[in-house]
Amino acid sequence: MSEDQPIAILGGTGDQGLGLALRFCQARRRVVIGSRDRARAGRAAEQVAGRVPGALVAGLENAEAIADASVVILSVPFESTVATLEAVRERFEPGQLVVSIGVPLASAVGAGATRLLGVWEGSCAELVASRLPEGVEVASALQNVAAHRLRQLAEPIDCDVVVSGAPGPRRRCMALCELLPGVRAIDGGPLANARIVESLTALLIGLNARYRVPEGIGLRFTGLPASERGGAKAAESSG
Questions:
Q1: What is the CATH number of the domain that holds 224?
Q2: Which residues contact 210 (CB under 8 A, 6 or more apart)?
Q3: Number of domains in the chain
C-alpha cells in the first residue's frame, strides 16, 4: 500500500465514513471523500480540514475519487451498495483494494437494525466481491467500529477489528486498520467469514441500546499469542 496514493472513501459524507476520513488524515494519509454529490463531498472535506490541521483531503464525485486510490473504502448503506458499485465499476483498476464495511441490517427495508437480511452471496463483503472487475482485491473490515469513537480524535478508538479476505488483501487491510489509534487488526481468515463478523454488528447495536452506550460498544479478543498481537503479521502465514 503506497503512502503516496490516496485512500478513497465512498460514502465519506456519512457518519462512519467521515469518521474514517478524520482518522486517516490524522495519521497523515491522503484521503479523497467520494459522494454522488460533488458539492456534498467538498463540504465534508472542508469539515475534515477544519478539524485536522494540515489534512491532505479532497472531496470528489465517486468515480473521480477512486481514480488514483490504492484503497477504496465502501462506506455506503447496504441498500446503496450495488448501485454505487455499478455506477463506478469501470473506473476500478486491477490491484486496487476495496474494503467492504457494510452490513445487511434489516433497517434497509424498514425493520429493526438489530436483525440481518439474508444475502444471496452470503455477506455484504461477498456481494461486493461479486460486483467488481477481475483483479480488484476485496477485504472485509471495520463494521464494528462506532462512528462516535472515530470522531473523538483526542481519544484512542479502543477496538479490535476482524479483517477477512484472501491472504494478500487481508494483509494490506490489516496494515491499513492499524493506522487507527487504539485499533488492533485481527486475522479473520477468508472472506466468507465476513458473514460472522457482519452479524456481530446487529448484536452490538442491541447491546448499545440496552446498556445505553451512545458512544458505541467495541470488541476485544483475549488470549491471542503475543507474536500475533501486532495484527498484520498474523496474515502472512495464514490462508
A1: 3.40.50.720
A2: none
A3: 1
